[in-house]
Design a protein that fits this description.
The complex is a heterodimer. By secondary structure, chain A is α+β, with helices and mostly antiparallel strands. Helix content of chain A is 27%, strand content 39%. Chain A starts with 9 loop residues before the first helix and ends with a helix. The mean pLDDT of chain A is 94. Chain B starts with 11 loop residues before the first helix and ends in a 5-residue tail after the last strand. In chain B, strand 1 and strand 2 form a beta hairpin. In chain B, helix 1 packs parallel to helix 2 and helix 3 runs parallel beside helix 5. Chain B is globular, with a radius of gyration of 24 Å. Classes of the chains: A alpha+beta, B alpha+beta. The interface between A and B is large, with 58 and 44 residues. Strand 2 of chain A pairs parallel with strand 3 of chain B.
Chain lengths: 218, 339
């Protein structure tokens, strides 16, 4: 089974970003990466199990106060992307012929934030989610009903580097669940999103949703 | 040099090498398909009193879908290096194996492979239009929309180009190079304590077409700008519609939105089958209703016909192939009041 890991190694990522911040008067590189796994089920089957990794490197280059943005999904293209952003900003500055007002951020003191990484999400893997989906469908079927929903987890990674010395990166876990149970005329919905898989209370939430649908059918 | 000569996946040969790598890596599964998409999107916006905003986003990625012992698996990721293809294939198989036996097994009906290539007909490559020409068009539009009462004007143009490649274990192999181009204008008017908005050619960021820069020129944003601004200002003093029963005439843009919401979504097969019950929603139409459900008011017109056909040159949206479907595809949504 797949290892639960950060999409891009943080130190390597920051070094790559810092290597291209000199292409214009000022440059801001922002990276958003997300590795998400989703177990979607409906009609008595797991119909859309997904493992999706998304990455975007966004470059904002500034020349004489005029900004242009270019983005790419792969690190190998980052240098070319940065140069293209700088060339576009330079062309816009020349076309306007007067200084603009665009700027980038400098270093800032770390703000106090709540924890965003929870190890319990590593245990909420595909096998566990498949079992939970099977249990939810069986619980609804026991009352002659149906269950449709999604159980998922993700790691989200953000990093920002600017030519003014800002250098920050963070990674966060995410666990989510959504369920629609229909028993006769009764329908119940549940949805939750948390940094921690344990805080979803998945078993209790599924049971409660089935009970509510049964109560509403009556 | 054409509008489709760009990027790493422009040629069928480069794409076929990756497609073959994936199909080899998933050898032995019940079914598999792989999609490669390389895209580039350009957006330029001008707004009254603000610096222009220009953004170009490039993407390149791979998606692999497999069926293992009746269980689906899917994985997608950026096509970052030569290992991405096999990594995506392995992850898709792992996902599928984890789901074997967890629900009703999927059995695909036999289908004939559909192969070929398709390219959007483009007269003027929107990515070859100089920045200065785009800026001039948008600046003229803003100036023309500044009629009395108008306090804000935003306009923009966008262009998107993609190489889409598809292959399946059924033998389908499809190569498409697509271009879409669009434009938009929004005006805000204020007065007498009120604020009104008018847009062109549609709301939701205007409109786009499966064609080149000629579509933007055809919109004539500067020529329509005075009318759009004047209509926003006129709404400030427009009377409120009287209460009561009466006939209502709605414009073409609203009719298309009505069809989209009331007929289009209702006829989406994944809604009809219940697959989207927990997310996008279900439908009042079931598969058993097809061919017998009377759609619309009994007092309405005898014949209501709705067709969707993204298969012809010059259509607002056009593709040679839709996902794994054989092409061209004609969608017959509603005819003679029966869904």
């Amino acid at each position: 089974m797949r290892t639960f890991a950060v999409p891009l190694p943080t130190d390597e990522l920051l070094s790559t970003m810092e290597s291209v911040v000199g292409v214009a008067d000022d440059v801001e590189i922002a990276v958003l990466a997300r590795a998400g796994e989703y177990t979607r089920f409906a009609g008595g089957a797991i119909h859309q199990p997904q493992d999706i990794t998304e990455v975007q490197y966004l470059v904002r280059a500034i020349v004489d106060g005029h900004a242009c943005r270019r983005a790419t999904t792969v690190a190998a293209r980052l240098a070319d992307t940065a140069r293209a952003a700088a060339a576009a900003a330079r062309a816009r500055a020349e076309a306007v012929g007067a200084p603009g007002t665009a700027d980038v951020a400098g270093p800032r003191a770390d703000a106090r934030t709540a924890p965003v990484w929870f190890d319990d999400v590593a245990l909420f893997d595909t096998g566990v989610r498949v079992g939970a989906a099977r249990d939810a469908m069986a619980a609804a079927a026991a009352f002659g009903g149906t269950a449709a929903g999604m159980f998922g987890r993700a790691v989200t990674q953000q990093a920002v580097v600017t030519s003014r010395g800002l250098r920050r990166a963070t990674v966060a876990t995410e666990a989510s669940g959504a369920l629609t149970v229909q028993v006769g005329n009764g329908t119940a919905h549940w949805i939750d999103l948390s940094r921690s898989a344990d805080r979803l209370g998945l078993g209790r939430s599924v049971s409660a949703t089935v009970e509510q649908a049964v109560a509403g059918s009556g | 040099m054409t509008a489709h000569d760009w990027g790493d996946l422009a040629g069928e040969a480069a794409a076929n090498a990756v497609l073959d790598t994936v199909l080899s890596a998933v050898d032995g599964v019940g079914y598999a398909d792989v999609r490669l998409v390389e895209g580039e999107e350009l957006r330029t916006y001008h707004q009254l009193g603000r610096d222009p905003v220009e953004r170009v986003e490039q993407t390149i990625g791979i998606g692999v879908r497999v069926l293992v012992d009746g269980a689906w698996g899917f994985a997608s990721m950026p096509l970052a290096d030569s290992a991405s293809a096999t990594t995506a294939a392995r992850r898709a198989v792992d996902v599928a194996k984890a789901g074997v036996g967890a629900g009703r097994p999927v059995r695909l009906p036999p289908r004939e492979p559909a192969s070929g290539s398709y390219a959007t007909e483009v007269r003027i490559d929107p990515f070859a239009v100089p920045t200065a020409e785009r800026d001039t068009l948008l600046q003229r539009t803003i100036a023309a929309a500044r009629v009395p009462g108008v306090i804000s004007v935003q306009c923009g143009v966008n262009a998107k180009r993609q190489h889409r490649h598809f292959a399946s274990t059924e033998g389908s192999r499809q190569h498409q190079s697509l271009v879409e181009t669009g434009g938009m204008l929004v005006t805000l008017a204020a007065g007498d304590g009120g604020l009104q908005r008018r847009s062109y050619p549609d709301s939701f960021h205007g409109n786009t077409s499966g064609s080149g820069w000629e579509f933007v020129l055809g919109l004539d944003l500067p020529g329509n700008a005075p009318r759009v601004g004047a209509e926003a200002a006129a709404l400030l003093s427009a009377r409120t519609a009287p209460a009561g029963d009466d006939d209502l005439m709605i414009g073409a843009q609203q009719v298309s939105l009505q069809i989209h919401e009331s007929a289009g979504h209702a006829l989406e097969l994944d809604r009809m089958l219940g697959d989207e019950r927990n997310f996008a929603g279900a439908s009042f139409i079931s598969v058993a209703d097809v061919g017998s459900l009377h759609y619309g008011s009994p007092a309405g017109p005898d014949e209501l016909r709705i067709f969707g056909c993204p298969c012809g040159k010059g259509e607002p949206k056009q593709w040679g192939f839709l996902s794994h479907a054989a092409a061209p595809l004609l969608v017959r949504g509603v005819r003679t009041g029966v869904a």
